[in-house]
Design brief:
The chain is mostly helical. It contains 15 helices and three strands. The chain has a three-stranded mixed sheet, sandwiched between helices.
Length: 312
């Protein structure tokens, strides 16, 4: 019991503190943002699974009712292998802390979802008053579009039911057909990958636990990597140059090429599209993806090791 809790704590601390700092300094996520997003999600899943399994073991050690429910289907030797009756005194404090953390995490996730839904409702009501009819010359095959009367070029995807793409008249006037296609493909990449859910999760964790390095870096890197991933989706269909030009046209009035910190990501995206880095070879990509997929299994292996040994 004590060994399992200590191992789970070590794995959680390793994934929450040194691992994200090392990943932030790495250069390969910029080349492969999709794999980078998977690795970040695996680190977060590892920490959450460690905390959840430690909570279950601690509650089983402290409360007899929980122990009977958790180990009811298992043979007596499995329950004896965990030695829950000899739980250390700090197991109750750890269990209570983990339970409070789980409740706080759930509250932050629910709050973020309700806030996102409220913001979308307000935005849809505001846009319904300002948006004119769709121009007859715009092809309908590009999906659900809402044209907003605005002199500044802009385009964004609004998730919801149904999801909707908003394009300003300034973007329709300034962008060429190929550039507009690149913009729509970029936004469709966000929609197909459901990046909005990933952004909600990262924001909720960073808001609820601002002092945890993993969640803070997870939020920052998610906002960055989802844009790089959507850029790759657009560049594969429309070309790097067309996508870069569309990005410049859409953001020129915001200072896309300035050195301000708020615009630095836009400049990095343009530079990345104009000078695309060399891609990882297939073998390296497969190994990285496989390793990332196996990371969240560590808490489960640590937790079930005593029971599997007892069964053997």
């Amino acid at each position: 019991m004590t060994v399992c809790l200590l191992l789970l704590s070590v794995v959680a601390l390793t994934a929450a503190v040194p691992a994200p700092r090392t990943l932030v300094r790495a250069a390969w996520p910029e080349r492969e943002p999709v794999i980078g997003l998977w690795v970040w999600q695996c680190l977060v899943a590892t920490v959450l699974l460690c905390c959840l399994t430690a909570l279950v073991l601690g509650a089983a050690a402290v409360f007899q009712t929980v122990r009977d429910q958790v180990f009811a289907p298992a043979p007596p030797r499995v329950a004896a292998a965990y030695d829950l009756s000899a739980a250390p005194p700090w197991a109750a404090v750890l269990t209570l802390s983990l339970a409070c953390g789980a409740a706080w995490t759930t509250a932050m996730l629910v709050r973020e979802l309700f806030e996102a839904r409220r913001r979308r409702g307000q935005a849809r009501a505001h846009l319904a008053e300002r948006a004119p009819d769709l121009p007859a010359g715009l092809p309908a095959v590009r999906g659900p579009l809402l044209v907003l009367e605005d002199e500044y070029p802009d385009a964004w995807w609004m998730p919801g039911s149904p999801p909707q793409l908003i394009v300003t008249t300034g973007a329709l006037h300034r962008l060429t057909d190929h550039q507009l296609d690149a913009v729509l493909t970029h936004e469709r990449g966000h929609a197909r990958a459901r990046h909005d859910w990933l952004l909600h999760l990262s924001t909720a964790l960073a808001t609820g636990f601002p002092r945890v390095p993993l969640f803070a870096h997870f939020c920052d890197q998610t906002h960055r990597l989802v844009e790089l991933s959507a850029d790759d989706t657009a560049s594969r269909r429309c070309g790097h140059l067309t996508t870069a030009l569309a990005l410049i046209e859409l953001n020129q009035h915001r200072g896309v090429l300035s050195c301000a910190s708020s615009h630095r990501l836009l400049g990095e995206r343009v530079d990345r599209l104009l000078e695309p880095p060399a891609r990882l070879d297939r073998r390296h990509r497969a190994l990285t993806t496989t390793a990332a997929a196996l990371v969240p299994l560590l808490p489960l292996l640590i937790t079930f090791a005593p029971g599997l040994t007892a069964l053997a």
